[in-house]
Every structure is written in C-alpha cells, then in structure tokens.
Amino acid sequence: MARINNHQDAKKKIIAAAIEIATETGWNAVTLEAISKKIGVTKAVLPKVYWNRCDSIF
Fold first, then answer.
1. Domain ranges (residues) in the chain
2. Which of 1, 14, 27, 43 suits a disulfide with 36, CB 3.0-4.6 Å?
C-alpha cells in the first residue's frame, strides 16, 4: 500500500478517484473502499484526510 505524506497531494488523489468512480459507476459506488482501492491506500487513511464522501467532492 502507498503512503500518503502530503495532505494536499492526498486530497487531489482522493478527489480525482471519487470523480472517476462516480463518473464510471454512479454516486452510490463512491465509498471509502472504492476510493482507497483506486488510489492504493488502506481505507483507514481516508477519514484522516476527509470526513465523508461529500467532503471529497465538494
């Protein structure tokens, strides 16, 4: 698994992954599991950067 050291880079990767997942499969498919798999980190990392999936998009 990749390690995220820079929160700004992490946010950009998370946003890009969330948008890509939503575009490909719909909003309901945007989950912590899906985003973490897409960017190559564990899902435990994501709440440290964003609180919920709405925060990741907006």
1. 7-57
2. 43
Q: Where do we find the tokens 């939503």?
A: 22
**Residue corresponding to tokens 């575009």:** 23
pLDDT at residue 50, as a whole number: 64
Rounded Cα distance, 29 and 5, in Å: 26
Single-letter amino acid, residue 13: K
Separation of CA 57 from chain center? 9
The answer to whether 14 touches 49, Cβ cutoff 8 Å, is yes
pLDDT in tens, 1-55: 555 566 677 788 888 998 999 999 998 998 889 999 999 988 787 776 665 555 5
pTM of the complete model beyond 0.85? no
- Biggest distance spanned by C-alpha atoms of the chain: 29
